[in-house]
Write a structure and sequence with these properties.
This protein is an alpha/beta fold and about 425 residues long. The protein is built from 13 helices and 13 strands. It has two domains: about 180 residues, Rossmann fold (3-Layer(aba) Sandwich), CATH 3.40.50.10860; about 150 residues, NAD(P)-binding Rossmann-like Domain (Rossmann fold), CATH 3.40.50.720. Bound molecules: NADPH dihydro-nicotinamide-adenine-dinucleotide phosphate and 2-oxoglutaric acid.
Amino acid sequence: MATSDPDTVPSAAESRAEPESALATARRQLERAAATLDIDPNVVERLKHPQRVQRVSLPLERDDGRVEVYTGYRAQHDSVRGPFKGGLRYHPDVSEEECIGLAMWMTWKCAVMDLPFGGAKGGIVVDPKDLSTEEKERLTRRFAQELRDVIGPMRDIPAPDMGTDAETMGWFMDAYSMQEGETIAGVVTGKPPVIGGSLGREEAPGRSVAIVAREAVDFYGMDLADTTVAVQGFGSVGANAARALDEWGATVVALSDVNGAIYDPDGLDTNDVMGHEERPGMVSGYDAPETLSNEDLVELDVDVLIPAAVGNVITEANASEIRANMVVEGANGPTTFAADDVLNRRGIPVIPDILANAGGVTVSYFEWLQDVNHRAWSLERVNEELETAMLDAWNDVRTAYEADEDLSWRDATYVVGLQRIVDAHTARGLWP
Ligand SMILES: NC(=O)C1=CN([C@@H]2O[C@H](COP(=O)(O)OP(=O)(O)OC[C@H]3O[C@@H](n4cnc5c(N)ncnc54)[C@H](OP(=O)(O)O)[C@@H]3O)[C@@H](O)[C@H]2O)C=CC1
Ligand SMILES: O=C(O)CCC(=O)C(=O)O
């Protein structure tokens, strides 16, 4: 187990080339937002760096007896408002820089939602599709063991992200609990409900994307019944966003998985298309009138574009080709800093990830409350409280957006979140 020096990570100014890292984008967004607020530059400097990054080596005995060693990370960015919180990603592109950038976004996301959590993110550099279920379980248990010293229900609470799911969280919780000698449900969220998971957590990030898209459509005087939507990625976030918008009357014309996209100008039946959870790779194999590439999907002439897969899909190279009337970010970091600028100048609103997909961490907070209090909530209660929390956050951001015509939606969202973090740091006193 090793603790990396976060200062070895390149500064925002050092990595301006696209595709840029999540960390470079997060730092440039922070600098931009800080410039619009009267924030102590020392606080901004501190917020550009994580508190800690844990790097671990994870030996895994493969099913054929060979041992392979994987690398895992947990980046803990800021905990001024409460325990660190954020997902675990299993993907070949996971890196220290990516985890730090994603952890920064979790800090702002929790603050925008006014949750008593800070920001963290972790992951393993692995393609989970290359592992059997048994191998994935062994790797997850080893990860929990290696992270034991830095996580816990009052310290740092992981959750699912790309490549992980409720089953993964169940193994993680069991491994941690076995080491502690008692069942500690609150160490992770996004678990199966039978062991303390919350009903509605799986659907929550996609549901919040749909709620925010619905509000944004209304804000711009459009009607959901006349709205066309394209969704990139059909996993936990994309499938649930697409299905909720479909159910509420929008026409979902395009969907995709890693292999490509399907398109029907008359609308796809989102419940008939199998998602990543049911079977990865089934979207591109669906019998639809047209197939497209993921790149083509992003440039479709639709009312709402929802990138809900990987980062950096809207870049300086394609930002001028985007024909959607608005972008609602389901994935974390789908728009590069330079692309954001192009879209702003073209008058295409981008509702940012740290607001739109924040339903995931919000229901994680509800799950943590249920675990700590040993009381399960009904699905109706979860969805009602999620709706209220999302509308409160949307209204806070909308108020900031309407108060200053120079702010983009991302700037306005940062203003809301960053101010809460700065206020908390100020109230607790500066660092010794
Ligand atoms: N899960 C959560 O709680 C939250 C996740 N997020 C963010 O949402 C995004 C998606 O996460 P999640 O839904 O959990 O992930 P999943 O692993 O559940 O699903 C990912 C989906 O994206 C597709 N995909 C993978 N790579 C690409 C690619 N290069 N181009 C196009 N599609 C691709 C996958 O296709 P295939 O099925 O073929 O693999 C799958 O449909 C990530 O950015 C994540 O950080 C944000 C908030 C909460
Ligand atoms: O539910 C959580 O704690 C975090 C989810 C997450 O990783 C995210 O919102 O990006």
